[in-house]
Each structure stands twice: as C-alpha cells, then as structure tokens.
Amino acid sequence: MENIEDKIIFLTEILNQHNYNYYVLNNPAISDFEFDKLLEELSTLEKKYPEFVQNDSPTLRVGNDLSNDFKTTAHEYPMLSLGNTYSKNEVTDFHNRILRETEVEPEYVCELKFDGASVSVKYKNNLFSQAVTRGDGTQGDDITENVKTIKSIPLSIKGENIPDNFEIRGEIIMPHKIFNLLNVEKQAKGEQLFANPRNATSGSIKLLNPKDVAKRGLDCYFYYMMGNKKIANNHFDTIKILSKWGFKTSEHSRLCKSLDEVFEFINYWDLERKNLPYDTDGVVIKVNSFELQDLLGFTAKNPRWAIAYKFKAEQVITKLLSIDYQVGRTGAITPVANLEPVFLSGSTVRRATLHNADQISLLDIRIGDDVYLEKGGEIIPKIVGIAKHNDNSKPTEFIINCPACGSKLEKNEGEARWFCPNSDCPPQIVGKIQHFISRKAMNIDSLGDETAELFFNNGLIKNIADLYLINKEQIVLLERMADKSAENIINSINNSKSVSFEKVLFALGIRFIGETVAKKLAYHFKNIDNLIIATKEELIEAEEIGDKIAESIICYFKDQENIELINKLKKQGLQFEIVEEEKKSDKLIGKSIIISGTFNNFSREELKKIVENNGGKNVSSISKNTDLFVMGENTGPAKLQKAISLNIKMINEQEFLEMIN
Ligand code: IVH
User: Fold this and answer.
1) Whole-structure pTM over 0.90, yes or no?
2) What whole-number distance in Å separates Cα of residue 452 and Cα of residue 383?
3) Ligand 1 atom at shortest distance from the alpha carbon of 80
4) Which of 23, 224, 301, 408 is disulfide-compatible with 151, CB 3.0–4.6 A?
C-alpha cells in the first residue's frame, strides 16, 4: 500500500475487527502473535505519522500515561437502580401488578444480573466519546480514558440507522480468572486483597493511570440503550441490534412468554451460574415491549417495568478437617477451619473463619463434620451450618492455652473472643509490626508482611521502633534480599518519618483505635503528650470516644513499655503532633482555578488545598468563567487547547507558588 494514511486506516480497521472477534465473539481469527505483529506495525506508523492516527485506533487500548483527573459529570438521564427481591412470590406480585396496570399478558426479557460496576457510555458519530460511572445516579465520574482500555467495548461501531448521538449502559466486570490472578499478585506483594470481583472492578475503573487499568483484564456487557432514540419496538430486538453494531451483549438473555418461563430461567441460572466465568448475583426481568414500558413508567428510583430477582449467596458442603487457632496482633484468638478443598464462587476454598468459641458451640461445629460453606461480601468464606455430624464426633473443646506461647487464655466480660495476655507473644509482635507498616498506617510499602516476619524471625527487629535502627547491610545478609530491595526498604522506612500524627497514632495499634478514631483523637488532643496524660473524663469529651475506647487508651499508656516505645519513635523523628493548617489568606478570593496534571513539589490534592486556604475555588472543567489554569506535567492536550481558545491565564507550579507565596 503506497499511501501511509490508507495503510493506517486499513490496519486500524482490521485490528479492530480482530479485537471484536476475540473479545466480543470469543472467536479469534488470527493468533496472538500475528495480532501483536500488526499492532506493532500500526503503532510504529502512528508514531512516525501522528497526523493520521484514527480516533478508534486499537493502540488507545493500552492506555495513556496521563494521570486521571476524574471530573464529576452530570448524567443526561439519571442512572436508576432496580427494585430487587429474593422472593419468587414477589416476582409473582410484580407480574400481577403489570397485568393489572396494562391489562395484557406481557412478554419478559430475562437477563443475567452482572455483578460489577455499571457504566454509561456515549457514542457520537459512531465513535466512543465518553464513559461515566454511576456515581450517585445523577452525577458520576468521567472515566473515559480508563474505559477506552477495555477491549470488548467498541471504539467505533458500524451498522444501519445508528443515531448520531446516543448513550448506552452496561456493567463492567472482572472475570474470575483475572480476579484470582490479581489477588495472587497482591498477596505476593503483601497488599490487601480484593474481597470479590465487584470490588476489584470498582477499584480498577478508578485507577489513576489508564495503563494500569489496561492490565486489569476488564470486560463489559451492555444491557440498556438510553433515551428517546428508539431503534426497535422492544428491548429484546434493541439488544440484538446493539450486538450487530459491535457491542458485547449477553448470549444468555431469553425472551419469556409467561411467568412460568421466567421461573424456569431463574431456576436454571441459580444452579448454572456456578459455571459462568464471572459473577452474577441474580436475574433481571424486564417487560419487553417499549409501549408497555412507557405505560408503566418509573418511580423516583426504579423503572416500574423491571425487577431484579437476587440469588441467595452460594453455598457448598465440604468436610471440616481440623481447626487452627491464630493469634492476632491484639492477642485475640481466631479459630480457623481447615477444609477439604472445594470450589465456591469462582475460587477454591481451603480455609474458613470460625469467628470465636461462641460461634463454634452455637453451631456445634465438630472436626470431621460436613459443613455448609458460604461466601458473603468478604474474602474469607464462613461456615454457616452443619450438614451432618461425623459418626464418632465429639463437641469441639476450645483451646485454653495460647498456641504460640502457651500462656493461659483470658476473656473479658461481655467479649466473645479469648485472648493471649502475653504482650511478648511472637505472633502478636509480628502482627503489630505488620499493622504498623500497612498502607493506611505508616505506609512502609516496600516492606511486605512476609519480609517483616522474616526480619523478626532473624532478630533484626523486636518491635516497631527497631525498624528505624536497621541498616542496609543487615538486610542484605538475609536470604533472597537484593541490594536494591534493601535500599528501597530503608528509603521507605525513612520516608515514613513524615507520616502525619493521626496515622502514627493509628499505626501504634492501640485496641479499638481505628483510622477514624485516631484522626478524631489526634485533632482533639493535638499531640501525644496531651493524649498520654488525658483522664477518662477528658477522653470521653472527644468526639466518638466512649467508655470502651477511653479505657483501652488509658490501659495502653499505663504500660511503661509502650511509653518507652513512643519515646524511641519520637527520638527517631516520627510525627507526634498535629501540623496546624497553613495560614489562610485572601489572595485568591473570588477566583475559579483549575489544577491539572502532575506537579514536582506538591500533589494535586495539596495544591487544591492551598487554593482553598487562600480563598480560591477549585473547579474541574474549563469554562469562560475560569480565572486561572495551573498547569502541571502531562496536562491533557484537549484541556490545554480549550484553555488557550478561551484565553485563560495559564501558569506553572512555580509561578502559582510565587503568586500566593
Ligand atoms: S438494567 C433502568 N440489566 O444492576 C434499568 N441492570 O440494581 C437499568 N445490572 O445499576 C438497569 N445486570 O448496574 C440492568 N442485565 C442487567 C443488569 C443490570 C446488572 C446492574 C446495574 C444496575 C443495577 C440495578
């Protein structure tokens, strides 16, 4: 092909077709290798001739490096939710209401209810133009750049009678396979795991760098076309047309002529959903005819022509092989069940929490029993009942001594958990260190949980203060510790010295002091010394602090070892007082300011705070009313263009800081 532009158009088209075959039809026509070769060819040409890059280029799928700045966008049509039920009788009631109100026997479309994150996507002149999250239903976040990386969502569509502008809704999901891999990766890095594919999906679509989103293997099913531009007389045909235009729609939707057929669909998928490669949490039943839909209308929250029947959490039966007792950082003992491995909701389960001794006796859980296992919203599955006691089984006797240090377990009145009273008990110390370094506490991110345990087991550290005394040479001596990782760990430990007081307070791991309580205490008492000497009455005066928390704080500071620990941390330079907010000025009063891109000295959020502290107003989208555009690196070209065309004053970080000085 002689002409470069034609060649780029040609490659764009065939690659988009191959993407469609692979991600929408699940029917690839060429090998991954051949695909990558073509993509590479296109990408090379695009780099050389950027003027010919097509708006729907498949190279957009890898994501760009621009940092996302999710601006809030109002939905043209609110994103409603569905009325839902767990009861078949209520589905019958729904049907009877529709019969009564429409006086016809309606046809229904039954669809799977995808369990992910809903998205609304706009297409303009056959091209993908914008994607927005559900948000609060009336406004959501603009996640356009992230959604472009989802390969099953067409960047351009083809077909007859496609409206110039339209909006389509669907559910972004993360298939089980990808979810499990992601959690394995997270575990290896010592990061917190995602509880379920839904959370993983919501987290992924809000990642700041689209390149990271591209790696998350997300998928999307479309199930609703918005607005007044109807392309057929009913929902079923609309979905068929959408699929012809290039959208991924569910192959499992079924047109049902009667309520019996609806129940057949529900019963079938209640069992069969276990074999799907992604999560579904129910079935959506929609009146098919648009005429009837219009007649039935909407309530403030839901369409009156649709209902979601939700499945009860999936349960399986497996055998309880043995019970382990784990010691947490506060000394609390958690019984954990070891199970005969069983597949449940997308992953193989080997362990389940048994919560505490009361739970074991309440359900009369015995070793050897066949137990019912259920996955709720959490990662860790739970035993919810006994299917059958094993023949010669005996009631479980809860341990009386700590499995780690042998101390006699204790139990406080009114509490369900037994705990080990020995604060030198090794798993408690390791747990405390792991809590201290965690992301929400000191965020010593290059030191994962396993390495922290390794440090403890090798005698490098005996408590959290020792972290600040180790040096690179000691780390390198440990097995599998490279120079670079050792350096990262030391840097990360040093960086933690600037972590704010409220986080340090949370990191200490005082019983019942979660993130929010730590914040409240830090702002109320301003510094650790005030907190140490506070009486119970004074503690209770602080917001959200009750008897239990106050007693726990007093008990913690009564222990001389803890005071010594704090003194050591103070000596190392950790933050033990609140840094008062910067002085406010009126320098930016009445000014609407955009902070966009990435900056050298401050984060975007910090700069926004500076704007507020000086009387200015932060805005996220440019208009003729914008007074100032503070431009960082990687500011999007569209934003720049708009700022230039509206003649808005543009300054860089340095100029901005000088301005408010
Ligand atoms: S229809 C106006 N169909 O469920 C009705 N929603 O609880 C628009 N969902 O926000 C929604 N699968 O995120 C519809 N096949 C399906 C669905 C579905 C999942 C989600 C969607 C919606 C929520 C409602």
Assistant:
1) no
2) 31
3) 2
4) 23
| Torsion angle (degrees, nearest 10) of CA 22, 26, 29, 31 | 60
C-alpha distances (whole Å) from 86 to each of 64, 92, 302, 309 are 43, 12, 17, 6
173, two tokens:
């999901």
The architecture in CATH of the region 84-310 reads 2-Layer Sandwich (3.30)
pLDDT (tens digit, 9 = 90+) per residue, 442-482? Answer: 999 888 888 999 999 999 999 999 999 999 999 998 877 88
To the question of domain 426-571 being in CATH 1.10.150.20, the answer is yes
Task: With beta carbons less than 8 A apart as the criterion, state whether 24 and 152 touch.
Answer: yes
Q: CATH topology for 592-660? A: Rossmann fold (3.40.50)
Chain-centroid distance of CA 314 in Å reads 22
Q: Please, what CATH class does the domain formed by 2-62 belong to? A: mainly alpha
pLDDT at 22: 86
Instruction: State which of 114, 250, 276 you would mutate to test the pocket of ligand 1, scoring each by most atoms of that ligand within 8 A of its C-beta.
Output: 114
Catalytic residue among 88, 113, 388, 639: 113
Site of tokens 């730590």: 518
Instruction: Establish whether residue 122 lines the binding site of ligand 1, counting it when its CB lies within 6 angstroms of any ligand atom.
Output: no
Closest CA to 440 of 367, 349, 505, 360: 505
Write out pLDDT tens, residues 511-524.
Answer: 999 988 898 899 88
Indicate which atom in ligand 1 lies nearest the CA of residue 253. 15
Respond yes or no: is residue 211 known to be catalytic: no
